Amino acid sequence: GPDGKVATYLFARAVACPRTGKPVPLAPNWWLDKKKGGTAVRLVVERNGVELDEPEFEIVRGEAIDKRAADSGTISRGEAVSPWDHQIIDGDYIKAEAKAGRMGSILYAVAVRGPKGRDFRVPTETDLAAIRAAEAELARVAPRWESEDVIPYEKRFIGPADRSANYGIRTMRDLFSPRQLLAHGTFVEEFRKLIPEIREAISDRDRADAVLALLALVQGKAVNWNALLSSWDVSRQKMRSVFDRHDFAFKWTFAEFEGARELVRWGVDQVVDAYTSIAALLNGTEGTMRNEVPMEPGEVEVTQGNAGALDLKDGSFDLVCIDPPYYDNVMYAELADFFYVWEKRTLSHVWPELFVDELTNKEEEAVANPARFEHAGRRKKELATLDYERKMTAIFAESRRVLTDEGVMTVMFTHKKAEAWDTLGKSLLEAGFTIEASWPVPTESEHSLHQAKKNSASSTIFLVCRKREVADDASRVFFDSIEGEVRSAARESFQRFTELGITGVDLLLATYGPALSVLSDHWPVYSSEPGPDGQSRLLRPEEALDVAREEVIHLQRNRLVSDQVEFDPYTDWWLLAWDTFEAREFPFDEARKLALAVSGVDVDDLARAKIVSKKSGTVEILDPTSRRRRGADSELPGVNVDRTQFPVLVDALHTALYVLDLDGVAAARNWLEQRRLVENARFRSLVEAAVRAIPRKREEGELVVDEARLLERLVIAAFPDVEIPEPDTTLSEGQQSFDV
Hints:
The chain is an alpha+beta fold and 740 residues long. Helices cover 41% and strands 19% of the residues.
């Protein structure tokens, strides 16, 4: 920065106010740092009673912060509030402006780091002049750069990983600001100049090109941490990369790395650090760093190719260890385009044969990507699933071929949708494997904020597989005859993994391996229900997983409701959804399957009762305030403070929590006593079950889930003998990011 300190520039996307024409910065909140009293930005639109032409900003700290303004910002759920006339700016207008190329950005703060640590300041005229100068320089070199193919103009592949095309980000160039493009394009130019210099300085051509490859990785770090989709991490006082999650999530605010001096130097440090660690693994010194027995260096051969057509001999390996793509979790090729288009402009001058395609090859990727089957209309998801199953079956069949007869294959897999397990299981079974054992292994941050608010698995399931002898078709096995084994395997795994402290969606997933193991022992297994042709049909693994899920839900309810009090289907579903998924939002299909297992309701019923709201592919459990009923709808299930009878018992609990939140503890207790709910054994059982079911994860000392916070206060006030579980370990939002 101009003051000699390392600077990170914080921008908000902006559109013109539709009524005043003045720029509106679009920031979900104005926090810069929430620790030690906090630091925030104050948006200023008038001074001395005179309205400004453009927004200005001030840095405020501690008690000077208007926390409501800092929390709310100017945009929420895609709609903005203009600071000029305080009117709503419709989300469709914002998208239309973005698509028309009229969404800009406004620099609202600068994070600076010096010898005394991190601080913040408002933008100076020097900062703004530097931005204008970078834009002018990019405009000057753009014609030459376009002719020399220096920066990427390719149209993006718009698939499941996209979250930005609706806001005008349609080309790869659109992912970067002018100043970011100037920095990255300059790197490309300098890299091309280095190719002959390095090849001349290093006589071994392969070694010289290896050095060039490492230098290209520096730009990979640079573009990931300096783009419109990189952002500022308030909790850790550092930047987040573009891929702090596995998609192109649109960011209303973005953080810009200092590109002239710091970016490349930092990228080199990152690549050197990674290279050093990998080298330590290969030469055996990594073990001694941890005071362990040094590893003996051995021969390592690395090959690259199609896992469905291995160039290896039959029966030549004792172990195949495979971590396949998790169905539709991550669209690797789509994400890789972000780096490919830049590498094409550097490394294609080293290895042109590797960069003949405009974008990455998505046709051969083993993921369930419906965007590849848009031509099929409504069948696109079905065809994507079949394509994934076909490719995984081929991969597993090749793995079986190269294994010795006594060999073992371990498969790592995690996915919260049963259909993903159904597809993977079918591929394993059809390829000729039995599943000997399965274990959940924690592989994600157990206390990540993302994990707390969304339905995410924190464990990977390790499946241990062996070759299966080809079964004699004369002895057909029907599922009815082994259903008891599946239920027994689910019960045993539920109890075993519960004792190991596994909960939520991870506990449900941990039962899938044992259920598939029973199927694999008897495969092929047929359904007792005939297929469309009237003949016996092969069982889908999902049908066995449904049975396992029923057992788990039965055991979960017994654990939550110790005295076996009967509630109602809506209340049962609400309790079990919190206990199973430990999140407010989770996939629609999993909500449907849970409803089927509970019986008596479906997701549409739950939506009509305002237990959930339906989104695109997901459902969200509604909080008490969102369930409030008024007027003509006051008799429907939901929150109504005037109601005295509660056919849906969770309505009583939610209404009590609503009153508590609105009017305080005394009012909530009074409301309960008027309806004789304090002494009602059935209601008390619900309170006990809810305290056990709702996740009690904390962030900075506060319970993350509002219902957990309100319920704790209600229990202390009205049910003091109900035991409140110990809170989970405190969350830190930073735990979900890589510390670079």
